[in-house]
Amino acid sequence: MIRQERFLVLRTDGFPHWGTRASGTTLAKRVVALRSFSFKGHDGDGTGRYGPYPGSRDAISRAASPRTPVNPGVGDGLPSRRRRCTLLSFTMKPHTLPPTDPPPPDPRVVLGLGSNLGSRVALLHAAMDLLDATEGLRVTARSSVWETAPVGPPQPAYRNAAVCVASTLDLTGMLQATQAVEARLGRVRELHWGPRTLDIDILWAAPEHPADTTGDLVVPHPRLRERAFALGPLCEVFPDALDPATGEPYGDVLASLHDNVPDRALFPTATVTETLNPKGWNVTARAADRADLFAACADALGQVLAPGESVRARDITKVHCPLTPADDDDNRLLAWLSRVLTVLFIEGFALRRAVVLCDGPDGIDGLLVGEARGASQPSWRTGPFLDGVSVTHAPGEAWTARGAFRA
C-alpha cells in the first residue's frame, strides 16, 4: 500500500506550505526533491495561476504600479515557475482512512431446530431464513436434516437440524428472537413435549458469548449429551464445539451414542425444466411426505415467476386452500398451486420459501415467506396457468409430483 507523507516547506517568499509525497524513496532523496519542489498554486514570489498571493511582495508592488494588470480571479497569465524551497521540518504522517467502527464480535452459538407437523423440512429451512434475516443474527452454517423418533406422547416423527449463528445479542435476546421466529411460523404451545410445527433451542454457546442476564437459561442445553438428534447437527455446523464442563469434544460424545444416531432425512427436491414448444416449464418434485411435496412444488412455481432473483425472507403471508375429503391428491395439489399462484402473480408476492402448516381433509393452511412487492410480475402478460399435475406415492416410498406451467 502506498502511503502519503506530509511535509512542511518554507518557500522563498516566507510563506509555509504543506505538501504530500508518496513514500517509497529514501529520506535523502525526498529532501533533494523538496529543494526543487514546484507548487501549482502560487510561485515562490507570490505569483502563479491564481495571481499574486495576498500580502506577498509581488502583490504589493503590483498594487502600487497601475501598469501591471491585476486579476486575482483569473491569474496574471504568467507561467508557473519552479522555485527553490527550504526544508523547515519533515514529519512522517501516514495517510490513512478515517477511523471506522470496529467489526461486530463474532461469538458462535448453535441453535437446534425441530418440527413434526406440516411440511417439516420446509419449516426448518424457512426458520433458518428468518433467523438469518433477524437483526443482530447471522447464520454462518446450516446442517443437513435428520429424522428422529419422537419423545413423549404418540406423535409423528421429527425432522431436526441446526444452525451456527454469529450474534451481537446476549442469550436472553437470542431466546426472544428465536421465539419470535417460532410465532411467525405458526408455533402454538399446547402440550409439553407434544407435536409442534417448529421448536428452536439454544444448544451451545462459545465461552466468549454474552451470558444470560436473567439466569433463567441453561446453556449448553441440559440434555444435550443425551440427544444424538441434537449432537449430530451440532457437530456438522461446528465440529470443534467442546463441553464447557468437561472439555470433551461433542464429537466424541456423539460417537459414544452410535446406537441411537438418527438417519438423515430425505431432502425435498424440485426440478424445473424449461420447454419451448409449447412455451412453459415442466416440474418434477420429490419428498418424503405429501406436505413437503406440496411445499416443494410451490417453491418451483416461485422459481418460474422470479427466475434467478435473490428474494429476502422479510414478509410472511398466509394461504388457505379449502378442500373436501373427496378430493384426491392430484386435485389437492392443483388447488394448492392455484391459490399460491394467485398470491404470487396477482398480489405481487416474491417467494423465497413455501411451508404447509396443516394438510387436512378440509383444506391446506400454509405460509409464504418472501417479499411483498405489490405489483404483478413484469415478464408475464396474463399470468401462467397450470397444465395438469399428477401425484404418485407407494407405501414405503417417496412422494412424487409432476406438473407443467404454461405461459
Question: What can you see in these coordinates?
Answer:
The chain is of the alpha+beta class and 407 residues long. It folds into three domains: 87 residues, no CATH class; 157 residues, Alpha-Beta Plaits; 138 residues, Archease domain (Archease, Possible Chaperone, Chain: A, domain 1), CATH 3.55.10. Helices cover 23% and strands 29% of the residues. It has eight helices and 16 strands. Strands 4, 5, 6, 7, 8 and 9 form a six-stranded antiparallel beta sheet that branches. Strand 10 and strand 11 form a beta hairpin. The chain is globular, with a radius of gyration of 35 Å. The N terminus is likely disordered.
What is the global morphology? globular
**CATH superfamily of the largest domain, please?**
7,8-Dihydro-6-hydroxymethylpterin-pyrophosphokinase HPPK
CATH architecture name of the largest domain: 2-Layer Sandwich
Supply Rg: 35 Å
Percent of residues in beta strands? 25-35%
Total domain modules: 3
Structural category is: alpha+beta
The overall strand count is 16
- Give average pLDDT, whole number: 76
User: Segments where pLDDT lies below 50 for 5+ residues?
Assistant: 1-97, 377-381
**CATH class bucket of the largest domain:** Alpha Beta
Describe the sheet with the most strands. 6 strands, antiparallel
Estimate percent helicity.
Answer: 10-25%
* Succession of helices and strands: EEHHEEHEEEHEHHEEEHEHEEEE
